[in-house]
Write a structure and sequence with these properties.
Elements: H1 27-37, H2 39-58, H3 68-78, H4 81-98, H5 108-128, H6 133-137, H7 143-148, H8 151-157, H9 159-178, H10 182-203, E1 209-210, H11 266-282, E2 287-294, E3 298-305, E4 307-311, E5 317-321, H12 324-328, H13 331-338, E6 344-346, E7 355-360, H14 369-373, H15 376-379, E8 386-392, E9 397-401, E10 408-411, H16 418-432, E11 438-443, H17 467-491, H18 496-502, E12 515-520, H19 523-529, H20 531-544, E13 550-556, H21 566-570, E14 574-577, H22 583-590, E15 603-607, E16 615-619, H23 624-637, H24 649-660, H25 665-674, E17 677-678, H26 680-687, H27 691-703, E18 717-718, H28 728-738
Parallel strand pairs: 1-2, 10-13, 10-14, 11-12, 12-13
Antiparallel strand pairs: 2-3, 3-7, 4-5, 6-7, 8-9, 8-16, 14-15, 15-16, 17-18
Length: 739
């Protein structure tokens, strides 16, 4: 029987429909599709045509007919600015038409500046033409926009304030166009005021000569200001200058605060000058103020002694010069007359034929580190070991080279500025030296002043705050000095500069020795705890460490004879004194009086090694924020830096062992190295000791494993060390630490 259905029982597949042929587009549809694809170009062409027609109609060269309302509207709103609107429409059309080809990089600030100028000029033109509101509706002047920015503004504010508003708008527009800021404007105004002050000084030659100016950058001898990139880095000697080789890791000046400018305060100066002359005249001492040096904190009035008429031996009246000592004796009377807290008289001023009367300023200027580093005085040092001190009574920057001092002794009462001065020294050194060129050692018994420098790559170990460990640091510095002298002898070098030049090649840079700057913030505490060891090591370092590149900066708040002994003072030719309690303390630190009359807060007297008398300086002020920025910069520049164990740890452990055992233990070890057998009586004879002490030394040698147990029936012991062993005590300490 035949099957009538499909084998699988499924319905048969349908055949696909034949493809539908697309309907052809008409000409208008093809035109619309083509215009849609080029809509940007079409819009650009239309805008350009509209702009051309508008310009011709505004110029009266074409009649728009039914589009005349367009030009009337532009005239009525913008006045003559309608031409600019038409040009802007053309620019927009060109931008759409050309696309990427017409792309122009215009910053929004410059576009805004041009717009402000155009709108302001529209208002000024309306006001200058004397147009009214009726004229604005007629399209004259700046139109309604020009009227709105002129008549209502001047009616409300008045003529003078209205002009100030327009001046501010123009200034703002120029700043936007030139990319300047208000800080640049302030600096320009300060420079202009200084030029006007100089012009006024030239017009008035009979005035009192005000020489100084605080916090002011002055040109060098060639007339150019030392730029920031002139900050040199030490290569072979501190005196070497090579700006091209400045390490890129060194900090930039933007980390420091900008300096402040102090005005001359001419009225105050003239009043004080007249007051000084009147007071001296009242005491029968005619004198005249011939010059004034104005600094950040004090003003020095240069007084020229006059003449007095006195009878001579023959009874004839003669003129005699007023003695300098007579003026100096009136210090308290001048303090009372000027109504100041303290006053200092320098009689006479070294190098000038005047008596200097230093009077505190009514307004004190803060001396910033950045202004000193940028100053020509700092640049002329020619050394990366240069440190900034502050500004003198004339406002000039004062800086010195730590390598030429070569050590500095600082004294002053609590809060006078010692720690801030040390912070400024450290900041200057790390600004111009990489960690491979300079190492720092810091001792801070007060435990709070220098610990912020922990983590600085220049620092050897950490800041030592324990007096017991500080003595070990000084001992290590002495041994390091001796080691360096042995290295100098091996290569026939006189100092660290000659030694480093021997290894000037790039492949031998690791053999070069860095400079070491040692900062001790409080010497009195160390002297009271270990007077003998501290004085002995300090004096030895001060006498011999200069050639090895080790320089000391020691500060104390008690400049008494038991702290600053005669031996210490003789080896520190450079001294710096802040405010002290009495003239006795001033004589201890400076060998002269004067420091007791300082005002504090950075006011100091600096005695340079080659200066005949101390110079008064207002110290630099470094904030905690600036220090944190500098330390943070070095931590970021050297993220892989890991503090190494300080090299004086073995020396501290050795002396701790000697304190616990016997100070002659090293001598006993030397005998054990030279002899095969030892006995208690042998130690007695060689070391000249009694039996109990010699027996204890023998037991210590046995505990250290250097000698054998006593032999049976005898008293001699066999030695386990010989002359080839370098340091048995050091080996014993190392083994003890491992255990």
């Amino acid at each position: 029987m035949a099957r009538t259905g499909s084998p699988s029982g499924r319905p048969p597949k349908k055949r696909p429909d034949p493809p539908v042929e697309p309907t052809p587009l008409s000409w208008d549809e093809r035109l619309v599709d083509g215009l849609a694809a080029r809509r940007r170009e079409v819009a650009g062409v239309l805008l350009i045509l509209l702009s051309l027609i508008t310009l011709l109609a505004l110029a009266g060269l074409a009649d728009l007919g039914w589009l005349a309302w367009w030009t009337r509207l532009l005239r009525q709103i913008f006045g003559w600015g309608a031409f600019i609107v038409a040009l802007l429409i053309a620019a927009a059309g060109a931008r759409l038409l050309l696309g990427p080809l017409a792309r122009v990089n215009l910053s929004p600030s410059k576009v805004l500046g041009v717009g402000i100028i155009i709108v302001a000029v529209m208002g000024i033109s309306h006001l200058a033409g004397g147009y009214s509101l009726r004229d604005a509706f007629a399209g004259r002047g700046g139109g309604l926009v020009g009227w709105a920015l002129s008549e209502p503004l001047f009616d409300f504010l008045g003529f003078f304030l209205g002009l100030l508003v327009y001046a501010a708008l123009f200034a703002w527009a120029l700043m936007l166009l030139t990319g300047r800021t208000w800080a640049d404007v302030a600096r320009a105004l300060v420079a202009l005021s200084e030029r006007l002050a100089g012009w006024a000084d030239r017009l008035d030659p009979d005035r009192i000569d005000v020489i100084g100016h605080a916090e002011l950058r002055t040109p060098d001898a060639a007339g150019a200001v030392i730029p920031a990139d002139r900050l040199q880095t030490i290569i072979d000697e501190p005196q070497a200058i090579d700006p091209a080789r400045r390490d890129p890791r060194l900090p930039v000046l933007d980390l420091l605060e900008r300096s402040e400018t102090l005005t001359h305060a001419r009225d105050e100066i003239e009043w004080k000058s007249k007051r000084i002359e009147d007071t001296l005249f009242d005491f029968g001492l005619p004198a005249k103020v011939v010059e004034v040096l104005r600094g950040p904190a004090v003003t020095q009035f240069g007084v020229e002694p006059g003449y007095v008429e006195r009878p001579g031996p023959d009874g004839e009246i003669k003129q005699q010069k007023v003695r300098v000592s007579q003026i100096a004796a009136l210090q308290r009377d001048l303090t009372l007359a000027l109504a100041v807290s303290r006053l200092r008289i320098e009689a006479p001023v070294p190098g000038r034929s005047v008596v200097g009367i230093e009077v505190p300023n009514g307004q004190t200027s803060v001396v910033r580190l950045r202004g000193l580093i940028e100053s020509p005085s700092f640049g002329r040092l020619g050394s990366s070991l240069g440190v900034a001190l502050g500004r003198d009574v004339a406002g000039a920057a004062v800086a010195t080279d730590l390598a030429r001092l070569p050590h500095l002794l600082i004294a002053g009462t609590t809060g006078s500025g010692k720690s801030v001065c040390i912070n400024a020294f450290i900041a200057c050194l790390v600004f111009n030296n990489a960690p491979e060129q300079l190492k720092l050692v810091m001792i801070d018994p007060k435990k709070v002043e220098l610990v912020r420098f922990n983590g600085l790559p220049h620092l050897i170990g950490n800041v030592e705050v324990d007096a017991d460990r500080a003595v070990g640091v000084l001992r290590w510095l002495t041994s390091e000095m001796e080691r360096r002298y042995e290295l100098f002898e091996s290569v026939s070098a006189r100092n660290i500069g000659g030694y480093n030049r021997k290894f000037g090649a790039a492949g031998q840079a690791h053999l070069r020795l860095p400079y070491i700057a040692v900062f001790i913030d409080e010497l009195a505490d160390l002297m009271h705890t270990y007077p003998g060891d501290v004085e002995r090591n300090l004096c030895r370092l001060a006498q011999m460490a200069r050639a090895t590149g080790i320089h000391l900066v020691v500060a104390t708040q008690r400049p008494s004879t038991d702290v600053i002994t005669g031996l210490i003072k003789a080896n520190f030719p450079a001294r710096l004194s802040f405010a002290v309690a009495s003239g006795v303390d001033s004589r201890v630190i400076l060998d002269t009086v004067g420091a007791e009359n300082l005002m504090g807060k950075g006011d100091m007297l600096y005695q340079a090694p080659d200066a005949p008398a101390p110079a008064r300086v207002q110290g630099v002020y470094v904030t905690d924020t600036e220090i944190d920025r500098v330390v943070g910069h070095w931590r970021a520049a050297m993220p892989d830096h890991a503090p190494q164990p300080p090299p004086w740890e073995p020396l501290i452990a050795r002396y701790a062992l000697l304190d616990e055992t016997d100070s002659l233990l090293e001598s006993a070890v030397e005998l054990a190295k030279k002899h095969d057998n030892l006995s208690v009586s042998f130690l007695q004879r060689r070391l000249r000791l009694g039996y109990p002490r010699a027996a204890r030394l023998m037991e210590h040698l046995h505990e250290m494993g250097l000698v054998d147990d006593p032999q049976t029936g005898g008293k001699t012991r066999r030695s386990f060390v010989n002359e080839d062993d370098d340091d048995p005590i050091g080996d014993y300490l190392s083994d003890s630490e491992e255990l």
